[in-house]
Amino acid sequence: MNELEFNIRLYLTGTMKSWTDRIDNTDQLTPQRFIFNAMTELFDSLSDDDLELIRLRYMERLTLAEIASRYLINESTVRHHTNPTIKQVKKIIKKGNELSIK
């Protein structure tokens, strides 16, 4: 499991919130809190359908073809609805990792 999938799974299962709350009991913005807050903002902005596509891809580990088949849509449609979110999550993780280096 790569870092992207790991963070998405942590977030969608609620584990990230639990861990973040335990790690950071100060008012300072820790890398974990930054990632959690940014992912919350991003995922809250998604439509229910887009969130479901992300959930199927990263929680259920379905392929793009399996998701497309399930919803009778093209794989490119699945990509179109998930890729912008995935790119944003990658940026969030990168920025969070940069915060932990400082």
UniProtKB/TrEMBL annotation:
SUPFAM superfamilies: Sigma3 and sigma4 domains of RNA polymerase sigma factors (SSF88659)
Gene3D superfamilies in the record: Winged helix-like DNA-binding domain superfamily/Winged helix DNA-binding domain (1.10.10.10)
One Pfam assignment: Sigma70_r4
Chain ranges of the RNA polymerase sigma-70 region domain: 43-91
Record-linked InterPro entries: RNA_pol_sigma70_r4 (IPR007630), RNA_pol_sigma_r3/r4-like (IPR013324), WH-like_DNA-bd_sf (IPR036388)
Recorded GO MF terms: DNA-binding transcription factor activity
Record protein name field: Sigma-70 family RNA polymerase sigma factor
Organism for this UniProt entry: Lactococcus hircilactis
